[in-house]
Structures are given as C-alpha cells and as structure tokens.
C-alpha cells in the first residue's frame, strides 16, 4: 500500500505545497506556530534576532533564504520598492483590527491560499473580504 502512495505522486504534490516562510515582527508568535503546525518551515523575525531591522534588511534576508514574507507592514505592498518578481512571495495582511485575535484568525485563510494559489514572484494583499494578487500571472 505504501508504494502506491509514493508512486502516484501524492507525496510529491504534498511537499510541493509546503513553503519556507518568514513572519515579520508585527505578527504574533502564534501565527508562526500555526504555519509550522501546518508543515511550513516558518521562522519569525524574533527567531532570527532581527527585531527592529529595517524593511530592506528583512526583504534581503527573504530573498537570500527564498522565504515568503508575511507581514502587516503596508510598505511591502509598494511594488516599485519591492517588485514581486524579485521575491519568493510576499503576503501583506491588511486588517481593520490588527490585534492578536484578528491576525491569528486570518492565518487559516493564508494557509488555504498557500495550498491553492501560486505565490512565487507574487504579492498577495489580504484583507477581511478579498485577496488581491500582483505579480507574474
């Protein structure tokens, strides 16, 4: 039975949907834990001792490590400064309320999108009612 699981490509498809993710310091640590619990290789800015680092430094680290950045920082939605084609993906979360509960409540939606939508070289701007995608089509 195990051979058919590996042989039919299901395992490879599952692995292809897991991502390397960097959460910004403005997200609660629970967001990073939820991403990890879903199988993603998620690091937080806090984990890497980068708290207080400038946005360009965070972006550069994400480029170097091929990580998707998840942030509440709207500066990362400026495609002139951070062109999607230069990154493995950026997810900017825009919420009316940015408290811990509201941010954590958005993580399942991000997880679902990571399973169904391509993120490479794209910027996702996610709010309560919609997701806008900029970048390669």
Main features:
Rossmann fold; disordered N terminus; 137 residues; alpha/beta; 36% helix
Gap between N and C termini: 38 Å
Total number of domains: 1
Rg, Cα atoms, Å: 15 Å
- Report the CATH topology name: Rossmann fold
Report helical residue fraction: 25-40%
Order of helices and strands: HHEHEHEEHEE
Structure description:
The chain is built from five helices and six strands. The radius of gyration is 15 Å and the shape is globular. It has a six-stranded mixed β-sheet with strand order 2-1-3-4-5-6, sandwiched between helices. By secondary structure, it is of the alpha/beta class. The protein has a single domain, classed as Rossmann fold (3-Layer(aba) Sandwich). The chain starts with a helix and ends with a strand.
Secondary structure topology:
Elements (H helix, E strand, L loop, with lengths): L1 H6 L2 H7 L3 E4 L5 H9 L3 E4 L10 H11 L2 E4 L18 E4 L6 H17 L5 E5 L4 E5 L2
Parallel strand pairs: 1-2, 1-3, 3-4, 4-5
Antiparallel strand pairs: 5-6
Helix pairs in contact: 3-5
Give a short synopsis of this structure:
The chain has 137 residues and is α/β, with parallel strands linked by helices. It has helices at 2-7, 10-16, 29-37, 55-65, 100-116, and strands at residues 20-23, 41-44, 68-71, 90-93, 122-126, 131-135.
């Amino acid at each position: 039975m195990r051979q058919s699981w590996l042989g039919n490509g299901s395992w490879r498809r599952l692995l292809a949907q897991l991502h390397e993710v960097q959460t910004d310091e403005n997200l609660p640590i629970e967001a990073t834990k939820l991403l990890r619990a879903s199988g993603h290789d998620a690091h937080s800015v806090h984990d890497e001792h980068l708290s207080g680092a400038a946005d360009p430094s965070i972006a550069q680290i994400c480029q170097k490590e091929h990580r998707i950045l998840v942030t509440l920082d709207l500066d990362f939605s400026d495609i002139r400064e951070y062109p999607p084609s230069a990154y493995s993906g950026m997810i900017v979360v825009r919420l009316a309320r940015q408290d811990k509960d509201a941010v954590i409540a958005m993580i399942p939606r991000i997880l679902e999108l990571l399973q169904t939508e391509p993120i490479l070289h794209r910027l996702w701007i996610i709010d309560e009612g919609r997701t806008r995608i900029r970048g390669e089509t």
